[in-house]
Amino acid sequence: MMRWHSVRDRYRVRVNPLLAERRIEFVILLLGLLLILQLVYGGAYLALLSTPDVVLPAADSLQVASSQPRKTITSQQSNEIRDRPLLWAARRPFVASSVSAAESPKPAQFKGFKLVGLFGTGDSAGVIATSKGKTRRLGIGEILDEWTLESVGVNEAVFSSGSRQETLVLQPASIITSADKAKKP
To answer: Number of folded domains in the chain?
Structure first.
């Protein structure tokens, strides 16, 4: 009891020049007591907190649906799936000719045209063509040297001029590696 009176008397002084310091000290003391009470209350709450009831999964969620046996895929079916282009509109496999590249006939170039590449699909399809040493991108309906691009196929483009139609086939480019260059004398 003696201590309580000395603490109480310490903060009742009104004339002392250290009054502001003592008030700050008193506020800090009250905040410390409030923190201790909060920690005691939180600890008691956690100690008395009951655990939630266990909810078991439904019986039908634990059963595995019967599955049909897996079918084996032949190598021909596997090749067909792999060759089918995923992002092409027609989704048809590319049919390679049985004639080797050395024996395949070169398409006739009309007026110096050469098909370099194809792009797009549908109405936004077009070609990259070379004519008279200049390479240009053409959309369907555009004209190059009096020839109009009529349509674009999987690996070909059809040009027309008046009643005449010409088809250019895209030829695969040969890739020359540094090892191939080293072999040539």
So the answer is: 2
